[in-house]
Design goal:
Elements lengths: L1 H30 L1 H4 L17 H4 L13 H37 L1 H14 L4 H12 L3 H28 L2 H8 L4 H37 L11 H10 L5 H29 L5
Length: 280
């Protein structure tokens, strides 16, 4: 049993180091983008369009796109938009969804009925069409993307946290806390919440990864921010049209997007294994 727990901890530690290292690097790149980017991401040079990466021609590090813009610089500045959407929308979604789920799962009664019915009604709307409709009404932009993600994805937190809070509420330690004279709110915050927190952390990191994908999809169909601003989805959309002439315009932002989403997922799993009270 002890060997099994040690093996889980080693795997969790490896996932945390790899995923956390990539995300930490991405955060630093986004913060210091003006210092790290070789060129202005909006600077065009039609005479230098579709230049291959440096190991093929000795030119730009990751090549240029059809308008002569530096691919590496656009990826670096695109990380700012991706991380902003991921962090802001993820935190807001977590606070709303997890808060409602915790209240419904622990307080039960009319609170649970009201929240559950609201979740069922909200989930009846197709999420992709709903997000496109919201952005069409509000207008494209960074704020619109964040609002669309929050409005759609809070139900994921609410459902999972509600179920986990119900399961924890049936445990003996909750009954002991109530017998000891602790109030319902104190029991929920000091007994239930710490044991539900690993699930919330996993959901939060997964939600950040989903937010990065959603922003890339909306950028891909030109429903994100201005088409001139560098976004990974916009670069993938442009690279798809010229994959046979300039594969690097598609491949490098696609790989960056894949590693970022994978890192958010593995970070959540690693944190869950590391801080889960049962494993501790």
């Amino acid at each position: 049993m002890a060997d099994g727990r040690a093996q889980v901890r080693r795997r969790a530690g490896l996932r945390l180091w790899l995923a956390g290292g990539w995300l930490a690097l991405l955060v630093l790149v986004a913060i210091f983008a003006p210092l790290l980017a070789p060129k202005d991401p909006l600077e065009q040079d039609l005479f230098a369009g579709r230049l291959p990466p440096f190991w093929l021609t000795g030119g730009a590090l990751l090549g240029t796109d059809s308008l002569g813009r530096d691919v590496l610089s656009r990826i670096i500045y695109g990380s700012r938009i991706a991380l902003t959407v991921a962090i802001v929308s993820g935190v807001i979604t977590c606070l709303i969804g997890a808060g409602l789920g915790l209240l419904a799962g622990f307080w039960r009664g009319w609170v649970d009925v009201l929240v559950s019915r609201f979740i069922d009604i909200w989930m009846a709307f197709p999420p992709v069409l709903f997000s496109i409709l919201l952005i069409a009404v509000i207008g494209p932009g960074l704020f619109s993307i964040i609002i669309a993600i929050v409005v759609i994805d809070w139900t994921r937190f609410a459902r999972v946290v509600r179920a986990e809070a119900m399961a924890q509420g049936a445990m003996d330690y909750v009954a002991s806390a109530r017998v000891a004279g602790r109030g319902r709110m104190g029991t929920m915050l000091r007994e239930i919440l710490p044991n539900v927190l690993p699930i919330i952390v996993v959901l939060l990191t997964l939600e950040m990864g989903i937010a990065v994908i959603v922003e890339a999809i909306l950028s891909f169909v030109n429903l994100s921010i201005s088409t001139d601003d560098p976004t990974w989805g916009g670069m993938i959309s442009e690279g798809r049209a010229s994959i046979h002439q300039a594969w690097w315009v598609l491949v490098f932002p696609l790989v960056t997007l894949f590693l970022t989403v994978l890192s958010f997922s593995q970070l959540g799993e690693g944190l869950k294994d590391r801080f889960d009270p049962v494993l501790r």
